[in-house]
Amino acid sequence: MSVFGTLVLGEAFTAAFGGLSALDAGTFGAVVQAPVVEEVMKGAGLIVVFLAARSHFDGPVDGVVYAGMVAAGFAFTENILYFGAAYGEVGWGPELAVTFVLRGLFSPFAHVLFTVWIGFFLGVAAHRMGPGSHAAPARWAGWFLLGLVPAVLGHVLWNGGLALLFDDFFSFYVLLQVPLFLAAIAAVLLLMRGERRLAHEKLAHYERTGWLLPQETVMFGTRAGRLQSRRWARRAGAGDQLVRLERTARRLAAVRHRLDRGHDVERNAAEESRLLRATVRQRQELLAAVGSAGVSPAGSA
Predict the structure, then answer these.
(1) Cβ-Cβ contacts under 8 Å for 290 (sequence gap 6 or more)
(2) What is the rounded distance in angstroms from the CA atom of residue 100 to the CA atom of residue 107?
(3) pLDDT tens for residues 101-141?
(4) H or E segment to which residue 94 belongs
(5) Is the pLDDT of residue 300 over 70?
(6) What is the domain extent for residue 53?
(7) Within this chain, do residues 53 and 160 fall inside the same structural domain, yes or no?
(8) Mean pLDDT value across residues 166-188
(9) Is 59 in the same domain as 151?
(10) From CA 282, how far away is CA 278, in angstroms rounded?
(11) Which of 3, 121, 7, 173 has its CA nearest to residue 71?
(12) In terms of Cα–Cα distance, which of 76, 62, 55, 43 is closest to 264?
């Protein structure tokens, strides 16, 4: 949707607004048309995910993940078009190599860095809204626009920074693009840390109701617990069994969060029951594998 919409609307946008700018056609396309049209259309694709999979769109981390997927798919397709155009003009040669290096090696995550702003703010909207409120655009449209602004501005800075702020590509890349990329990584790590805290909180519910042991809440709900349990499982030759149980526990925490939020209660309650049965079965498989290896349980270490 995002790629098709950009191809359809790009020329129409330039025809409508290009004459209002003093910029030449190439500069206008790079610093105005591309940032506005591409971010709007990537955002539109993200809205489809937001509306169609609302029960799986619970917060900022979900928004960042979905936005990253939309943007990565867009960048993948766009790069193929650029590589094809370069090859069509000069064939195999330095120009094609330069295009590949600049787009495939120096800036493969650029589109992701822009669109995650939209995903983050849509995720905030999802977290703040109650179940069913996605049907009212007034509840999330403002958050979408709030994310669209930094997405477009970041795209403008990325496309026009070399012409507007720097004299050479190396300075532009090292002083602007690399710090932005590192800042984005740091932000995602902080979001993941918050997600782990939420998972620990939700898994504690199953500890209180007797479905999980206290050691399991630590094993699956904290980073230190996961690292320790994985080392233990590898020694016991039960790494695969632990991975399956850990994955089920993470899904269980996500379903508990949706139930607590009131999202699609009937379907999520059925999924919770299925995951709880899977937890019991996978725990038995894990302990059987550990017992056969003669290694003591993780909680007794």
Answers:
(1) 233, 236, 238, 297
(2) 10
(3) 777 777 778 889 999 999 999 998 888 875 555 556 778 88
(4) helix 94-100
(5) no
(6) 2-165
(7) yes
(8) 80
(9) yes
(10) 6
(11) 3
(12) 55
Give the whole-angstrom CA distance, residue 159 versus residue 237. Answer: 51
Q: Which two tokens stand for residue 14?
A: 């330039």
Tokens for 242, please give them: 């632990």
Record the tokens describing residue 235, joined without a space: 């020694």
For 279, other C-beta atoms within 10 Å of its C-beta total 20
| Dist. CA 33–CA 9, nearest whole Å | 10
For residue 292, what are its two tokens? Answer: 């056969």
Tokens 């105005």 correspond to what residue? 32
Backbone torsions φ then ψ of 132, nearest 5 degrees = 85, -15
Same domain for 14 and 64? yes
Residues 40, 118, single domain; the answer is yes
User: Based on the domain organization, do 157 and 251 belong to the same domain?
Assistant: no
The three-state (H, E, C) secondary structure of 72-133, written as one string: HHHHHHHHHHHHHHHHHHHCCCHHHHHHHHHHHHHCCCHHHHHHHHHHHHHHHHHHHCCCCH
Report the first-to-last Cα separation within the chain, whole angstroms. 53
